[in-house]
Amino acid sequence: MNRLTTPFGSHELTRFPEDPRDRLRAWDAADEYLLRHLHGGTGERGPVDLSAAAGRITVFGDRWGALATALAAYRPVQITDSYLTRAATGANLRRAGVPEGAVTLLTTQDAPPERIDVLLVRVPKSLALLEDQLLRLAPHVHAGTVVVGAGMVKEIHTSTLDLFERILGPTRTSLAEKKARLIFCTPDPAAGEGTPSGGGSRWPLAYTLDGDAGSGAGLTAVNHAGIFCADRLDVGTRFFLQSIPNNTAGARVVDLGCGNGIVGTAVAVADPEAEVVFADESYQAVASARATYEANVPGGSRRGRAEFLVGDGLAMLPAASVDLVLSNPPFHSHQATTDATALRMFAQSRRALRPGGELWIVANRHLGYHTHLRRLFGNSEVVAGEPRFVVLRAVKREKRPRPM
Fold first, then answer.
1. In this predicted model, what pLDDT tens digit does every residue of 342-373 receive, in sequence order?
2. How many Å apart are CA 211 and CA 215, to the nearest integer?
């Protein structure tokens, strides 16, 4: 746990799930820069009168709730695509003694606030998600809305600024401080007239998988903004679809970290008796998975053979309740490269699997996940491999009784 000290107060903040061994903080220099600017100005622009906009402050992209917690006295609205961010925000607000309901927590799938007087944007990793959300938010800002973006220098590109300019209005950046930069945007009601579909979002996108997609060949993938490789099938998943088991025989199967849900949908199409659980911490991902499933399975989710879960991996599933887990685990948390998420997914999978159940993953070969699986499951088998990717299988063995 670390303490963030700002002009708005000092707070102990953690990521979610909390891990005392985690050396990554729940904020960065961009959060600090933005909060300093809001309170006292940056030398380029003056401070922002937040009291005049109480209840009409919207924060999009807050990583772990640092901004929402620091600004809780002004009753902001937080919009996030991440269940983990939402959980971290709730924990950080409770720790700070913020009354329940003081901060409104919305997801990227929810309707934005009717009126926004101050819009704060932590630039997300996905340019598509930024575009989609700015388009959703634009009708709710007005000529007097204060719009300030923030990000690390490596996160802000010309394409980032172009989106603000095209969708909201004239845009410029601040000087860099501690490798962080602010984005200042002046809303212009005419700015969005040149956007696709008369100002609407081009998301979700749909495409058909070609014949090289293994068990996914011919299926339709539907992608909301922010999904990894949203306009095409990523090479790792393509390789995985050529290897996943096709003899599930009515099993309860989990597509863990489901993304657009094409892996779980391929299982459902091949085995109509299978029960498929689509699980991801991204609200955009689970919405995509539902749309992909309904585009390919006759009767869609009304068949009752699919479940869609937004949450912390498999934490919400009972122990020993599934037969097969399929996953293409991430190795990034925002801009940080880490195996913590994948290792947590492996441990959750072992807990959720019945004895004899199997975890199948696809991963970059260099990550060396086979060693972690052997440590956790006691076994690991290479199902398929090529120079860049490998498909691994681990089986949950029944515990052997200790000799008397």
1. 999 999 999 999 999 999 999 999 999 999 99
2. 9
Rounded Cα distance, 181 and 34, in Å: 9
Provide CB contacts within 8 A for 47, sequence distance 6+: 37, 38, 39, 40, 41
For residues 379 and 377, what is the distance between their CA atoms, to the nearest angstrom?
A: 5
- Which residues of 271-388 form beta strands (DSSP E)? 275-280, 306-310, 322-327, 332-333, 336-337, 353-364, 381-385
- Confirm whether pTM is higher than 0.85: yes
* The amino acid at 362: V
Collapsing DSSP states into helix, strand and coil, what is residue 260? coil
Q: Which two tokens stand for residue 28?
A: 């960065």
CA gap 114, 69 in Å, rounded: 22
Backbone angles phi, psi at 133, to 5 degrees: -75, -35
CB 334 within 8 A of CB 129: no
Residue with tokens 């000290």: 5
Torsion, CA 151, CA 154, CA 159, CA 163, rounded to 10: -10
